Amino acid sequence: METLNRLDTGAFLTLNGWHADWLDVAMYWISDREFWFPAYALLLIWLGWKFRWAALGVVLALALTVALSDQVTSSVMKPLFLRLRPCHEPAIDQWVHVVWECGGTYGFASSHAANSFGFAALLYLLLPRHRAFARFLFVWAALVSYSRIYVGAHYPLDVLAGAGVGTLMALICAGLYRFTVKKFNLPTV
Q1: In Å, how far are 93, 111, 136, 175 from 165, measured between CA atoms?
Q2: Residue-wise DSSP of 131-183
Q3: Computed over its alpha carbons, how large is the radius of gyration of the chain?
Q4: Which end of the chain is more exposed for a tag (fewer CB within 10 A), N or C?
Q5: Distances from the Cα of 12 to the Cαs of 52, 87, 143, in angstroms?
Q6: DSSP class per residue in 38-52
Q7: Contact status, residue 140 vs residue 116, Cβ threshold 8 Å
Q8: Cα atoms in the Cβ-side hemisphere of radius 13 Å centred on 81
Q9: Can you say whether the dihedral through the CA atoms of 46, 72, 176, 140 is positive or negative?
């Protein structure tokens, strides 16, 4: 564990150390959840327009995926592992480039990464005819995840674990969606 922690800290300091004033502004907005609300709204409108009532199941599966991803990382993992965010770690805080407020005390695993990867993975799994668009969402999720390292809030392993949690929740929710659609003979996308 000591070696893994040392490698993770070194990777964090390297990635977090590559910063520029213009990129600080971009990463601030990329990392801000509220910045993405209009994009989420447009996506929901598109789903409704494209799939009508069948979109309701996808929207509910998305909501469940994000809720589970967020709760597993925030309410289970962070209190369980008690790993300080890099911006709260006394051994390195003098070298951490913090772009905005640091956030809560603990950071393992990243809820931003879990939520964005869960969102992308679920749409990838449930919209097979729109996989090109869903692949773009994985790029977006990776960018959001990297922004968490850039702004000083998470180590690389925090975001990798969060991405794994989100993907796992998407797999579970996609299975639940498919089971429900088949069991109750509901319209599918």
Answers
A1: 27, 9, 20, 15
A2: HHHHHHHHHHHHHHHHHHHHTTS--HHHHHHHHHHHHHHHHHHHHHHHHHHHH
A3: 18
A4: N
A5: 44, 11, 15
A6: HHHHHHHHHHHHHHG
A7: yes
A8: 19
A9: positive
Nearest to 170 by CA among 69, 39, 37: 69
Q: What angle do CA 22, 25, 28 make, to 5 degrees?
A: 145
Asked whether the predicted pLDDT for residue 146 surpasses 90, the reply is yes
Instruction: Provide CB contacts within 8 A for 33, sequence distance 6+.
Output: 112
Neighbour tally for 38: CB within 10 Å: 9
User: Which CATH number does 2-183 carry?
Assistant: 1.20.144
pLDDT in tens, 51-71: 999 999 999 999 999 999 999
